[in-house]
């Protein structure tokens, strides 16, 4: 089989013409494609030169630790919480709702709240959340114990109202700018919706609390960076095509191994490359020593 590269794709295009194009057009077209290819390669090389050492090995090791796909995010992440029997537009709305609820809330609590919302008469749709019979107070009671459930109930009602009218007419917007205009939707939620609901995973690197912590501990972002700073930092060097994959990988890794308290450095396959390895244990030991004094 012919190897797939820019030249073979160019050959295919040329062979499907009903009349052969002028030679100079063909040469110009090939030159443009080659230039584009070279520019992309140079951009990737530039990115690699500003990247942390061993980042590819670190990712490979974390991938291997995540091979079981048994972290809470794998089973109960936003991508698992839409009703797959619903139509595409409804599923996009459900993913938006799940993303809003998931902010500062454990996956298991988000999943349970989504189950209760799916059980609403008529299911979880824009119309059902918007209807007057469902008050903000009732919605808050359904969401409880989700973090900030009262605030989120207000936001979800306002989102349903906004999406019901013009210019959305029952559609969840598929651009970052429009999503950010919805109540309670910040960059993390908007990027998550774009990725899960619209398959646009390369709009921005998604940083939740797990991703922020893992990136800082690995030294991929300055210590103490907030999620926005971590996102900006990684977007400067991590190839765009890896953004959704790495973000998802790190969420589960942070849930299972690089936990907020007592990270499991002894079983972590990147402990030889991580500047924060065993620091938690040494902090604990120094605390015990100071108590004994
Ligand atoms: S070695 Fe420890 S701190 Fe570093 S990534 Fe692994 S679990 Fe996290």
Automatic annotation (TrEMBL):
Lineage: superkingdom: Eukaryota
SMART domains: ENDO3c
Keywords: DNA damage, DNA repair, Glycosidase, Hydrolase, Lyase
Biological process terms in GO annotation: base-excision repair, AP site formation; nucleotide-excision repair
Molecular function via GO: DNA binding; DNA-(apurinic or apyrimidinic site) endonuclease activity; lyase activity; oxidized pyrimidine nucleobase lesion DNA N-glycosylase activity
Pfam families documented for this protein: HHH, HhH-GPD
InterPro entries to which the protein is assigned, alphabetical: DNA_glycosylase (IPR011257), Endonuclease-III-like_CS2 (IPR004036), HhH-GPD_domain (IPR003265), HhH_base_excis_C (IPR023170), HhH_motif (IPR000445)
Any Gene Ontology CC annotation: nucleus
Span of domain HhH-GPD: 101-256
Keyword Protein biosynthesis: no
Similarity comment text for this entry: Belongs to the Nth/MutY family.
Name the UniProt record assigns to this protein: HhH-GPD domain-containing protein
Taxonomic source organism: Adiantum capillus-veneris (Maidenhair fern)
């Amino acid at each position: 089989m012919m190897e797939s590269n820019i030249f073979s794709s160019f050959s295919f295009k040329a062979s499907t013409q009903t009349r052969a194009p002028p030679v100079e057009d063909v040469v110009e077209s090939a030159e443009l494609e080659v230039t584009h290819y070279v520019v992309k390669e140079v951009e990737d090389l530039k990115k690699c030169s500003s990247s942390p050492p061993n980042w590819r090995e670190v990712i490979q090791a974390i991938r291997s630790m995540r091979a079981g796909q048994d972290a809470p995010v794998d089973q109960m992440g936003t991508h698992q919480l839409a009703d797959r029997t619903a139509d595409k537009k409804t599923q996009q709305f459900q993913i938006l709702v799940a993303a809003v609820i998931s902010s500062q809330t454990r996956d298991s609590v988000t999943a349970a709240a989504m189950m209760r919302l799916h059980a609403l008469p008529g299911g979880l749709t824009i119309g059902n959340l918007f209807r007057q019979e469902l008050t903000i107070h009732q919605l808050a009671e359904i969401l409880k114990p989700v973090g900030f459930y009262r605030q989120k109930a207000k936001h979800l009602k306002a989102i349903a109202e906004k999406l019901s009218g013009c210019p959305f007419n029952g559609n969840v917007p598929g651009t970052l700018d429009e999503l950010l205009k919805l109540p309670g939707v910040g960059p993390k939620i908007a990027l998550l919706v774009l990725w899960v609901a619209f398959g646009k995973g390369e709009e921005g690197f998604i940083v939740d609390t797990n991703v922020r912590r893992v990136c800082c501990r690995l030294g991929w972002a300055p210590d103490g960076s907030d999620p926005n700073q971590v996102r900006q930092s990684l977007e400067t060097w991590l190839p765009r095509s890896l953004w959704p994959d790495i973000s998802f990988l790190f969420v589960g890794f942070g849930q299972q191994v690089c936990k907020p308290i007592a990270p499991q450095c002894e079983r972590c396959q990147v402990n030889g490359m991580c500047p924060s390895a065993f620091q938690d244990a040494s902090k604990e030991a120094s605390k015990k020593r100071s108590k004994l004094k």
